[in-house]
Amino acid sequence: MAKSIMWNYMHEEKELLSSLLRSSNVKTSILHLDKIEALYIVAHGSSYNAAHAAAPFIMRQAGVRVYVYTPSAFRYNALALPLENVSNTLVLGISQTGTSRGILEALDYANSLGFKLIGITNEKNSPITQKTDLTFYLECGEENSNAKTKGYSATILTLLIFGLEIGFLRGKMTPAEKAAQYSELQKQIDEIDSVIEDTVAWCTKNNYGKEIDNIYMVGNGMNFATAMEGQLKVMETYCIPTMFNDIEEFSHGMHRSLNPKSHVILLNTKIDCDLMNKTFAYLKSKAIDVLMVNAQPPKKDDAVINISDYADTSSIFLMTAAIQAISVYIPETNGLDPNRPANDDYTDYVETRV
In the 3-class helix/strand/coil scheme, how is 196-223 assigned residue by residue? Predict the structure, then answer.
C-alpha cells in the first residue's frame, strides 16, 4: 500500500511552524488588545484539543483567564459569559475550514451579547472571516485528510504566539523573556522531523499496533490535550474505540478495564512524573503493552521513546509529532489507508458545515 499523504503533511510542519513563528500575522493585529482580561475559545475536534493544549500557557504567560468550550457547551453551559465585561472579554472561534456550523452559531450568540470576536482559520474569505472582528490565518495550505495534523500543530502555535504577544503587551514579560520563549519554540520545532523518524523506527522495531483493537492515551498538564488529540487521531485513522485521561484520573476507574490485550501510551513530562513512572512500572509488571513518550531524563528501556524536555511548553510539539506518527503508522502496518472512508456521509447528513 502507498504511504498516506498524511506523512507529507507532517513533514511540512517544521517549515510551516517556523514560518508562523516569524510571521507578523498575530503580532501586529493585537496591539489594541492590551486590556483583555478573559478569553473564551470555542472549537470542535482537533481545534478544541489545540485550544485545551494552549490555554494553560496563555493564562501563565498573559495573565488572562481562558475558558475552552465546544460550541454546544458554549451556547448552553457558558453561563458566566453574560456576566463578563464586554470591553475586556474576547470570544475566539476556531475552524480550519471556516465553515463549521457550530462555530458560526456560537459566534452569532457571542455577537448578540456584544462581545468582540476573533477567528482562527486556514481559509481566507470563508464564513468565519465574515463574522469576526479580527482573523488569524494558519496559512498551512491544503490538508486533504480526515485527520488533521499540520493544521492542529499550526493552531497550537498560533494560540501560543497570541499568549506571548498579549503577555508582552500587558507587561507580563520583558523583551528578553519574550525572545527566550520564541527561541525555545523554534528549537522545539527544529526537532519535529527527528521525533517523527524516531517514532517510526521504534514502531517498526516493535511491530507496534499490529491487530491492535484498543488504545488508552494518558497525559497531564498541557499534554492532557495531547492525550485527547492522540485518542482522536487513532480513532480517525484506524477507526477503533480509544480512550484518554490524565494520569491523576487514571486510577479512578479506567485502570479497572485494563487486561492483557490493552495498549497504553503515557506522555511523560515533569508534571506528575513520579506517578507516570510508577504507572509505567506497574503496567510492565502486569505484562500490559505500554509505551512511554518521555520528556524527562532519558530512559534506557525498549518501551520508551525519549524526546527533549522543553519545560515551558511541556514539549507539546514533540509529543504531538510522536502521537501523529503513531496514528498513521498503526493503520498502515495493518494494511489500511488512514484516510479511507468511514461513515463519511454522517457529517453531510447532519449538516455540520455551511
Answer: HHHHHHHHHHCCCCCCCCCEEEEECCHH
Q: Give the mean model confidence (pLDDT) for residues 324-331.
A: 97
Confidence of residue 27 (pLDDT cuts 50, 70, 90): confident
Give the pLDDT band of residue 187 (cuts 50, 70, 90). Answer: very high
Give me the DSSP letters along 13-44. Answer: HHHHHHHHHH--TTTTT-TT-TT--EEEEEE-
pLDDT in tens, 244-300: 999 999 999 999 999 999 999 999 999 999 999 999 999 999 999 999 999 999 999
Asked if pLDDT for residue 149 goes beyond 90, the answer is yes
Name beta bridge partners: 116: 90
Q: Kindly give the interhelix angle for 150-169 and 45-62, rounded to the nearest 10 degrees.
A: 20
Minimal CA–CA distance to 57: which of 173, 210, 196, 147? Answer: 173
Residues, the chain: 354
Q: What is the pTM of this model?
A: 0.97
Four-CA torsion 179, 180, 186, 187, nearest 10 degrees: 160
The beta-strand segments (E) located in the chain are 38-43, 65-69, 89-94, 116-121, 134-137, 215-219, 242-246, 263-268, 289-294, 304-306
The residues near 245 (Cβ < 8 Å, ≥ 6 apart) are 216, 217, 218, 227, 254
User: Nearest CA to 26 among 126, 168, 123?
Assistant: 168
Mapped onto helix, strand or coil, the DSSP state of residue 289 is strand
Whole-angstrom distance, CA of residue 353 vs CA of residue 304:
40
